[in-house]
Amino acid sequence: MSAVHADLHYTKTHEWVKVHGDGTATVGITDHAQEALGDIVFVEPPDLGRQVDVGDGCAVVESVKAASDIYAPLAGEVVAVNTALADTPELINESAYGDGWIFTLRIADAGAVDGLLDAAGYQAVLDAEA
Amino acid sequence: MGLRTPLFAEHERLNARIVPFGGWDMPLHYGSQLEEHHAVRRHAGIFDVSHMQPVDITGSGAGAFLRRLLANDVVKLKDPGKALYSCMLNDQGGVVDDLICYFRGPERYRLVVNAGTADKDLDWMQAHAAGFDVHIDRRRDLAMIAIQGPQARALAAPLLPADCRDAALAIAPFFAADGARWFVGRTGYTGEDGFEVILPADEAPGLWQGLIAAGIQPCGLGARDTLRLEAGMNLYGQDMDETVGPLESGLGWTIAWEPLERQFIGREALVALRDNPARRDFVGLLLTGRGVLRGHQQVLSEGRVVGEITSGGFAPTLERSIALARVAPGLGATCAVDIRGKAVPVRVVKTTFVRHGKPAQAL
User: Fold this and answer.
1) How many domains does chain A contain in total?
2) Shortest Cα–Cα distance, A38 to chain B (Å)
3) With an 8 Å Cβ cutoff, is B340 touching chain A?
4) What is the CATH number of the domain that holds A67?
5) Which of B34, B233, B272, B323 could bond B309 through an S-S bridge, CB–CB 3.0 to 4.6 Å?
6) What ipTM does this complex have?
7) β-bridge mates for residue B198, sequence order
8) What is the per-residue pLDDT across A67-78, written as a single tens digit (0 to 9) for each?
9) Cβ contacts of residue B301 below 8 Å, gap of 6+?
């Protein structure tokens, strides 16, 4: 059973979003996603400073099985990437919602957060896939 | 739902992630593919390979039939139990399947063919059996468990029947010990020592449980693929198929050209290709840049596409990405691979990356 955290927002494509009070948001992949991908061996983060639109493929997570695109859940500018993933990509398996975060965005439109799924909405997506 | 092996309930009990493969529902992993991979390199792992199909070939024409059917020559098999790896070719020199052929005694052979190709293989064999006194017996009653790793033989031996236990420990690599009910080959698909045990389906769960109780790691198809890739072993349908033959997939060593008068299926096509200067090479690639090599990525040299990766992935033993690739002849020591639009540098190396737990070449 994969964990879903109540304080996060989600996308149908299995990214999580933690909205901070300062207009930024951190993005990673959900516990369900890391479990489905299997052991993660490489992460290609977005370039710092890149402007992304909602739905842009902006990072790639590669597991022993396959490569998977990570889509920007919100529009904005990439202001931080998790450099620890370069040497320890398995952090995503070990701590999908914590040390395995992938990048942080400065959100272009704070209202867009309302378009994301809440925990219940994401749980419904998982239930529908099961 | 796909076909299920006699060990399916064991996989469910171990919480395996089940995936479709060659018409079968098979375990991909039991939690961590990387841990399973390392267990085989460092200790021992077991694989349910019951989806693979044993086929017994008997009759006074069995040897002659196989000398026609296979590109390698069963005449090399003089000692009972000796095994031979071969391609079964079509008339165009493409590969119908690759298989292991065990010699069990005069005019008695056992083939093991791939799961996804078994129906086609049996049709092909029957279609070419005319004129030979041969009986082709598809053994649906048997299961198969591979036990692989440096400790595999020692841990498995106590679980073998008395009639083949000592023999199984005594045989050289690429031989089999033939018991009354169990057949134990010192073969595998990982680059490690070990056994492949073919046994009656109803006895397979007991052996599996005994091996688990002996502390051996169950391993899925995921680890099987990374292990065979590190060992530089081909996967049918990926590295070669009906359109690409052994000369262009690193399997030239399995063709028995001598004696010249042996007319095996596909021989004429192979002879024509053998001396063709445009014949493609089959090479190993080691990623020196960042990323993961994958099947179907294009190989680039001086900005031009010169070939394609047939199998690629992350090599857990090397902690690098490696690949097998089919490329134009004359490729230099370095080139590049197109990974999502970027030309990432690779080194061209031998196809065997790992043997017996260690790098098989300077990488």
Assistant:
1) 1
2) 7
3) yes
4) 2.40.50.100
5) B323
6) 0.88
7) B144, B183
8) 999 999 999 999
9) B328, B331, B332, B335, B336
Q: What is the structure's pLDDT at B2?
A: 92
Q: Model confidence at B122, in pLDDT bands (50, 70, 90)?
A: very high
Residue carrying structure tokens 């036990």:
B147
A126, part of any domain: no
For chain B, percent of residues with pLDDT exceeding 90: 98
∠ CA B130-B136-B137, nearest 5°, is 160
* pLDDT value, residue B177: 97
Across the beta sheet with B135-138, the strand order is B83-89, B95-105, B108-113, B53-58, B135-138
The letter for the amino acid at B57 is I
In a domain, A128, yes or no: no
Give tens-digit pLDDT for B286-323: 999 889 999 999 999 998 999 999 999 999 999 999 99
Q: Distance between CA A5 and CA A29 in Å, rounded?
A: 12
Predicted pLDDT at A1 = 54
pLDDT-derived band at B346 (thresholds 50, 70, 90) equals very high
Residues of B in contact with A39 (CB under 8 A): 32-34
From the CB of residue B12, how many other CB atoms can be counted at a distance below 10 Å?
Answer: 13
- Cα–Cα dist B336/B299, whole Å: 6
C-alpha to C-alpha distance for B104 and B50, rounded to whole angstroms: 20
For residues B148 and B151, give the distance between their C-alpha atoms in angstroms, rounded to a whole number: 8
Q: Is residue A3 part of a domain?
A: no
Mutate to test the interface with A, among B19, B314, B320 (most CBs of A within 10 A): B314
What is the extent of the structural domain holding A28?
A: 9-119
Which residues in B31-186 belong to E strands, given as ranges? 45-48, 53-58, 83-89, 95-105, 108-113, 135-138, 142-148, 176-178, 183-185
B113/B110 Cα distance (integer angstroms) = 10
* pLDDT value for B362: 84
Q: From CA B158, how far away is CA B148, in angstroms rounded?
A: 15
Structure tokens at A110: 């704070």
Cβ within 8 Å, pair A64-B321: no
**What SS3 state is found at B229?**
helix
State mean pLDDT over B137-148: 98
Q: Do A64 and B34 touch (CB under 8 A)?
A: yes
* pLDDT for residue A130 is more than 80: no
pLDDT tens digits for range B130-140: 999 999 999 99
Is residue B147 within 8 A of residue B195, CB to CB? The reply is: yes
Residues of A whose CB is below 8 A from B320: none
Tokens standing for residue A69:
């695109």
Residue A25 in domain: yes
Q: Which two tokens stand for residue A105?
A: 């965005």
